[in-house]
Amino acid sequence: MPIVRTLSVPERDLLLRLQPFPEGMRGVLWDLRGLPEGADLGEIDAVVLPNANPSAVLGSLVRAPALKLVQTQTTGYDGVIEAAGSAGVATAAGLHADSTAEHAIGLILAKIRGIDESSRDQIEGRWRPRQQQSLADRRVLLVGAGGIGRQIARRLENFEVSLTRVGRTARVDGHGTVHGADELIRLAGTHDVLVVATPLTEQTRHLISQEVMAALPDGSLIVNVGRGAVVDSAALTRELVAGRLHCALDVFDPEPLPAGHPLWTSPNALITPHLGGNTTASTSRLIDFLRFQIKALASGQPPRNLVQPGPFEPLLSQPATASSE
Predict the structure, then answer these.
(1) d(CA 100, CA 116)
(2) Could you tell me if 298 and 116 are in contact, meaning their C-beta atoms sit under 8 angstroms apart?
(3) What does the pLDDT read at residue 319?
(4) Which residues touch 17 (CB under 8 Å, ≥6 apart)?
(5) What integer best gives the mean pLDDT of the chain?
(6) What average pLDDT does the segment 2-31 reach?
(7) Minimal CA–CA distance to 26: which of 51, 10, 41, 43?
(8) Parallel, antiparallel, or unpaired: how do β-strands 171-173 and 176-180 relate?
(9) pTM score above 0.85
(10) Residue 318 pLDDT more than 80?
(11) Of the candidates 182, 103, 192, which has an alpha carbon nearest to the alpha carbon of residue 142?
């Protein structure tokens, strides 16, 4: 079985909160930029990636030649499998769904109800009462039928919207019809809020294309809490600068959003710096999840949420024991 004796984490506070480690395993600090504290690179068997901008340090994984597992703190794992080589890759899928769904609803409400405009008015001391749109009776097109999408859909039920869900393929699940991604252009023409909550893959890159945006009615709102590159950023920027569409974005392509980018100053854009899943609830859930992963690794069980099994593949066919429950 894969033996994991040294696991690195990128933040000192996280390392302290994961103590004590099981007998035979230790945790060390490594931000993947400099050198690890308390261990040589050749001793590191497993790595927890940083939560913020992990793509910036993925190139450092090759410096750990004995690597058996790469653990993300995020649901998305774009670029991680390629950087991990033969090591296993596990995600934090499910831990951030509630927090990200909360943020998506907040972005929708803030933009539709003009809260972003009122916030700008407050800074300049302007009192401008005016009628705003309502989320009730909006036609919402939700792209993403996974964990985050399900939580967004559940919360939208209370707002009396007309909801249409889109996934990779057309199907019927326990909550009704899921349309296929090949229907997006047709569906966009009859919806005025488009919410993106899908991970980035080769299939979803620029899924929200210029053609999809062009099909949206004038004044429509695009909300993205998935990954920036799922939306064609150049096409979105053109629509925003022209004043035809609105957006509320927590993720960008590229990220961080560069200084001087037109979206910074567009009155039709509401921007948050990729903080949708970063809440107190998701932090406590992450600690519990990582403790489970550590316990599994120490007891010879496969970790959860493997998207690339790597050396753990033989363990996946074995029956679960009490230590993995």
Answers:
(1) 19
(2) no
(3) 53
(4) 287
(5) 94
(6) 95
(7) 43
(8) antiparallel
(9) yes
(10) no
(11) 192
